[in-house]
Amino acid sequence: MNLSFSKNGGHIYFRFFIQNTLVLLIIGVAAGTCHAGQVKTLTVYSVTGFSLHAGRIFRQDTGVKVRVIGMNGNGAAFERIKGEHLHPKADVWLGGSLGAHAQASFEGFTTSFRPANWKELDPRFRDPLGNYRVMGLYMGALGIVVNTAYLENKGTPLPTGWQSLLSDSYQGMIGMKSPLVSGTAYTTVSTLVQLMGEETALNYFKNLSKNLSSYTHSHTRRVSLGQLGMTITFAHEAIEEMAVKKDNHLKVIYPEEGTGYEIGGISLIKNGPNPEAAKHFINFVLSERGQRLFAKTNYQLPVHLKVQKHALPSFDEEKMRLINYDFSWSGKHRQRLIENYKKKVLAEGP
């Protein structure tokens, strides 16, 4: 199920009044104690529709009002938090690939936090940067999503990996988001740099440009509709499309050379207006209850170990050929890689 919410600064307000004593009782049971008389509006910068679900239930449990502001990609979220860092307007940054979260952490715009149920979270994904800089919400692998009927009609073969995407037979058939604003696309760039080396990878993307239809959002839907032959994105987008839209023409191909993956991040914004409420919210999102809520409508692998066993099937880890993706390196070099991508790839563009 897709949940829509306002983007580019759209606001969604949840308002609920409750007696201070009841607030103390509920929050004390669910996530520790909250200061009496200080139930304020919690602001969440969001790159996932799950924030709306979480905000509703958190409000019902605690009485804390939640304001969700949808971001048009993790790059946009990073730039907003960076621009506001002297006077932060938000408390929590929820969702989106780790690269921008990592950069924000290393540049001091977010702060460390150790969730209350630390031992219940998958050690592979719960603390990808170390020192509790960014918490993991979910995991999802990069793949090539193809419309098999489209390619069959064109008489072109299925791709097998990254190098195969450079074939002249795919000219104008491939979709990809822009790494300037998209965490998905930046993960793709970082994956190829870690696989090939930076110079080779940037030359690869320059050569790939001739086969790109455009840098666009909603490309998985365009592939499903037969407007594109394939796209580079996280596998769960296609699996959701197949499950919800009953599309039997979509297929996920994991590149034979190996592929990267994302850990969806949750960050506590440094010096945000409501740090205690923000911590309670993060604890809720990562609790077994919060993760079960996430797994009902999302196709990534949740970070909570118990919930993983009951999550919607979204991938086969044995087929993924995951590389040893370095999240810390990716975060520290994000700005430089994006600038080099602009200079060496986008100068000619698709």
Q: Report the CATH topology name of the largest domain.
A: D-Maltodextrin-Binding Protein, domain 2
Q: Supply the number of helical segments.
A: 15
Relevant CATH superfamily of the largest domain:
Periplasmic binding protein-like II
Overall average residue pLDDT: 86
Order of helices and strands: EHEHEHEHEEHEHHEHEHEEHHEHHHH
Estimated helix fraction: 40-55%
| CATH architecture call of the largest domain | 3-Layer(aba) Sandwich
Percent of residues in beta strands: 15-25%
Shape: globular
- Span from first to last CA? 32 Å
- What is the CATH domain class of the largest domain? Alpha Beta
Count of spatially separate domains: 2
Question: What does the largest sheet look like?
Answer: 12 strands, mixed
Q: What gyration radius follows from the Cα positions, in whole Å?
A: 20 Å
Strand pairing plus helix content: what structural class?
alpha/beta
